[in-house]
Design a protein that fits this description.
By secondary structure, the chain is an alpha+beta fold. The chain is built from 7 helices and 8 strands, in the order βββββαααβββαααα. The chain is elongated, with a radius of gyration of 20 Å. The mean pLDDT is 92.
């Protein structure tokens, strides 16, 4: 009988956790070299468990696990430090990013560049100076959404019209829409001008795409930021198969209160 596959010192983040029996948990985790996987953490709910204070979302971890089944067995977990847990709206934004990964990533499909972008957005969300950080956090979310869509093959090239492959005119307005990709916008549609889309394509191709894209989006005016957010939200909801993601609805409900 072949020995069970073992993985050691794997960088990871917990995306979600479910109760499994009275004392154990099932974890959905995003790992750098193996993508999204499921783990059982036996005894993790017991007060004496070493896992209990470590297996938290939005925290950088290093995991040891083994097994060949769909759900592997967690053998060890170590918190790698670096930042505190996000709070308030930043915490909900982190849960939103986690929900996107759970809905759009297939299991056992590695995305190392996306893992690095995820680590970047979590670090931004955990930053200090909440008031000054609001715009940066929003830009980080947009940057991550773009990189996620591109990584899973759902983002067309942003420097040409998708169906015709014609180059974009700098001052012409274009919309990013499900199925049709990037096309000339109608008067009542959320849109960016061609120069903005071309700039986004350039930074997405940068050697450090998350940081470069965040910086580019942070320099956009409020109207362009709002238009980009609305188009990405429509595209993500479409590919997730929902009208509104659960975490987005939760944000709306809390804001209404």
């Amino acid at each position: 009988m072949a020995a069970a596959h073992r993985v050691s010192h794997e960088p990871a983040y917990v995306l979600h956790r479910y109760d499994w029996s009275e004392s154990s948990l099932i974890l959905e985790v995003f790992t750098r070299h193996h993508g999204r996987i499921a783990l059982v953490a036996k005894g993790a709910k017991r007060p004496s468990s070493n896992f209990r204070p470590v297996l938290l979302p939005l925290q950088p971890l290093q995991l040891n696990y083994g097994g060949d089944a769909e759900i592997r067995t967690l053998k060890g977990a170590e918190w790698m430090g670096g930042h505190v847990m996000p709070t308030g709206e930043a915490l909900l934004s982190g849960y939103y990013v986690n929900e996107l990964l759970l809905r759009l990533l297939a299991r056992d499909d590695a995305h190392e560049a996306l893992f690095d972008a995820y680590a970047g957005v979590v670090q931004v969300l955990a930053g200090d100076h909440v008031g000054a950080q609001a715009a940066t956090q929003a830009a980080a979310l947009r940057a991550f959404e773009l990189l996620l869509l591109r990584e899973v093959g759902l983002l067309p090239s942003l420097d040409v019209q998708t169906l015709t492959l014609e180059p974009l005119a700098a001052e012409q307005r274009y919309s990013l829409v499900p199925e049709a990709g990037l096309r000339q916008a109608a008067d009542d549609e959320a849109a960016l001008n061609g120069a903005d889309w071309q700039a986004l394509q350039t930074v997405l191709d940068d050697r450090a795409p998350f940081t470069a894209t965040l910086r580019e989006i942070a320099t956009m005016n409020a109207g362009s930021n709002s238009a980009l957010r609305n188009q990405l939200r429509t595209l993500l909801n479409y590919h997730c198969g929902v009208s509104t993601l659960r975490t987005r609805q939760m944000m709306r409900d809390l804001q209404a209160l």
